[in-house]
């Protein structure tokens, strides 16, 4: 209940070589002009597992690493901050594979029947098949009319059992 | 244009001590029952700067680290995966402080006048004041009727100039 109290101590360690690593002068736009979209899952460390250093890339994370839910952020990234490449990562053993939107809506409506209308309006974006959904999310972006660059978009799976990534599309 | 090609090489390095670190057997639910909401900004490495290790915490990232945009993911995290604490981080020199939703909608409508209607429906969630918006996002979560726990929610600012974090609320 007070995990946040550990943040300050860990942060003291992080800042020790912050100036030495020249991190204070990094520019706002991502140096490698890339956006990584991936899941919020606790087992993932995108920076460590993909070699992303401070200043390199926008990293968007949400439940499932879903592209439709990342659209607002991607439009800001491309139109205001100059990114041109997107890599979408989903992962094995994802929680999103274990339920349907209908099921979660039912759980919430049982707890909060007075909010049934709002709950029914939330699309939880669960998906039943991993590789298939990576392809769907990449297709969603490739076909989106408001993106600056619809070509340089790749789709990947991260294996939580091994730490390995494989490109799907 | 091909940054993603570097991912495989960096990933080879990451997996070298994956078994030694016993990362393959981590459970799906976050061990520390906490969700961190923060910005997609390239200069941020939440794992390194807050001492979050694989398995510890859900990490949600979007443009600005906005709580309203993270709601779908937070509901999944709390109701299906047992988290009870939330820490919201925004940061200095954030791109979201440099424009308004109206301005970005205008930029997009100039480029794509045929999609004006859809563009007008996108709330880009820009904000003019940093600390104030951290407080607003924490209040949004504390007042939200569908959260499991409305008490253990903190708000923070990360300083990109120094790497330091400070608690706002």
TrEMBL record, chains A, B:
A UniProt-annotated Pfam family: Pro_CA
Role of this protein: Reversible hydration of carbon dioxide.
Family label: Belongs to the beta-class carbonic anhydrase family.
Keyword Zinc listed: yes
Cofactor(s) required for function per UniProt: Zn(2+)
Cofactor note: Binds 1 zinc ion per subunit.
UniProt keyword terms in alphabetical order: Lyase, Metal-binding, Zinc
Lineage of source species: Eukaryota, Fungi, Dikarya, Basidiomycota, Agaricomycotina
Name of the protein: Carbonic anhydrase
Catalytic function, reaction form: hydrogencarbonate + H(+) = CO2 + H2O
Record GO terms (molecular function): carbonate dehydratase activity; zinc ion binding
Keyword Zinc: yes
E.C. numbers: 4.2.1.1
Native source organism of the sequence: Sphaerobolus stellatus (strain SS14)
Membrane spanning stretches: none
């Amino acid at each position: 209940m007070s995990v946040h109290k550990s943040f300050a101590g860990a942060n003291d360690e992080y800042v020790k070589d912050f100036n030495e690593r020249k991190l204070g002068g990094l520019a706002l736009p991502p140096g490698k002009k890339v956006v990584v979209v991936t899941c919020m899952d606790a087992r993932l460390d995108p920076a460590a597992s993909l070699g992303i250093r401070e200043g390199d890339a926008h990293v968007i994370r949400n439940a499932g690493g879903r592209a439709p839910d990342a659209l607002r952020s991607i439009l800001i990234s491309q139109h205001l901050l100059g990114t041109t490449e997107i890599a979408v990562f989903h992962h094995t053993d994802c929680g999103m594979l274990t339920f349907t939107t209908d099921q979660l809506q039912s759980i919430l409506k049982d707890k909060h029947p007075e909010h049934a209308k709002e709950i029914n309006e939330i699309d939880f974006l669960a998906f039943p098949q991993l590789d298939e959904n990576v392809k769907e999310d990449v297709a969603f972006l490739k076909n989106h009319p408001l993106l600056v660059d619809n070509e340089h978009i790749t789709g990947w799976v991260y294996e939580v059992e091994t730490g390995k990534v494989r490109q799907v599309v």
